[in-house]
Each structure stands twice: as C-alpha cells, then as structure tokens.
Give the backbone structure.
Amino acid sequence: MVKTREIPRPTEGELELLGILWERGPATVRDLFEAVNKKRDVVYTGILKLLQIMTEKGLVERDERERAHVYRAAISQSDTEVRFLRELSERFFAGSAAQLALRALEMEAASDAELNMIRRLIAKKEASRLEASAASRGDER
C-alpha cells in the first residue's frame, strides 16, 4: 500500500506566491518575481529558490516543457483556507466554527452583500440540521 504524504502547511512567503498563482493562474518565476516586487523588494533568486522548495513540498507543480519553467498551484485555495481555518478554530475556539465566525464578525464591519451570504449560509445549515434530525428520527419525507 502506498502512503500518500500530507502536503505541508505553507509558510507566509509560500502563501504569498500561492495567492498570486490562485489569482492569475500559471506563471513563470519572472512573473511571480515582478508581482511580489511591486509590494516589497525581493531578489529573483529568492523567488526561484522558494519555488524550488515549494515544488519539493508538493505545493506547486513545474512545467519544464518551455525554456522558462511555468509554475502552477498544486493545492487549491479553498482547501488551503479550510485547513487554516480548521487549525485556527481548533487552537483558539475549541473547534467551534461558530465562535470563530462570531469573532470575525465582531472584528470587521460586513457589507450588505456579505451579510446576505451569511444569512443564506445560516439558512442552508439550518435546513441540513433539520433534515438530519428528521432522518435520525425516521421521519423521511
């Protein structure tokens, strides 16, 4: 049986590059260097080395068919967000996603659109909970 290794947790620098890849799609070292360099001074070889490390970790994949290697994210933004939020929830809120959400809402004002999304999510969760409750009682509709 082959063991699948767990992808390591990305560092801040790795998350920065992943964020660019998630937003823009596949990119060369030069593309990533220029994007990061707009925010802060970095050296090209630093970005290259970080991408090599990220490739070894399984965070990005490298396409070597062209002269300039092209990198793409090997992990999804959604999976990464869920992983970090789950860790945060477990570390600070005893595993309660609700407490994490409440604290986040206390920290920042939410737009009308965001509040509507939250209301829809609450309604969806309530419906799922009611369905699960009915199914456990044998009250299938």
Observations:
- Residues 12-73 form a domain with the Arc Repressor Mutant, subunit A fold (CATH 1.10.10.10).
